[in-house]
Q: What sequence folds into this?
């Protein structure tokens, strides 16, 4: 039974990874409009070699717009090695953190909300990000979906309903953050430790 549960979990994680690989490219291309568009089918040009991905992966205590910082991170120079001990910019609202109050805006970035909705509700629900009525409110999404079940409108059951999730949980945020970190990186194969970055500790 444990083996089957683990296989099921690995399969679900793989599905989410594949889904975000494509969606993250679309979101970044649309929001940041990089000169070299990110290929949804490839991870070769992601990570710190890509300016948009690098900005989102950059630790909040460093300034990605500083050429010295950018070069240091890319070269993994002393003082610029990125580990799981820093909060990446993609976790913060408007991709900016207040170093005097690191809880302000944490877990409120548009791309994190988009990824959460893509995984737990549906990729089509992502278009509602920024709409105060829907946002990342899983409870409201479930209510809307339940109402639709009694109408003639066809509704596909989503993950949040299947696992009976009625609110955003710390574990679900951590899961989405790890998936997003991986989707933004240039790493092609999932592993718990990626160089200096430990996903388990993150």
A:
């Amino acid at each position: 039974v444990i083996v089957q549960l683990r296989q099921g979990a690995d399969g679900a994680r793989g599905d989410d990874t594949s889904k975000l690989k494509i969606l993250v490219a679309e979101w970044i291309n649309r929001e940041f409009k990089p000169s070299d568009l990110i290929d949804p089918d490839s991870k070769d040009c992601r990570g710190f070699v890509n300016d948009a991905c690098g900005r989102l992966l950059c630790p909040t205590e460093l300034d990605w717009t500083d050429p010295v910082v950018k070069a240091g991170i890319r070269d993994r120079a002393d003082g610029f090695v990125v580990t799981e001990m820093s909060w990446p910019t993609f976790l913060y609202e408007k991709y900016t953190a207040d170093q005097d109050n690191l809880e302000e805006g944490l877990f409120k970035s548009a791309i994190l909300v988009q990824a959460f909705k893509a995984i737990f509700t549906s990729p089509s629900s992502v278009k509602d990000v920024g709409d105060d009525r829907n946002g990342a409110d899983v409870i409201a999404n479930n209510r809307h979906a339940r109402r639709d079940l009694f109408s003639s409108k066809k509704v596909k059951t989503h993950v949040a309903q299947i696992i009976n999730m009625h609110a955003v949980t710390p574990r679900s945020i951590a899961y989405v953050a790890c998936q997003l970190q991986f989707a933004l990186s240039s790493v092609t194969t999932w592993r718990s430790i990626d160089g200096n970055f430990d996903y388990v500790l993150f």
About this structure: Residues 131-136 have pLDDT under 50 and may be disordered. The chain is about 45% helix and 0% strand.
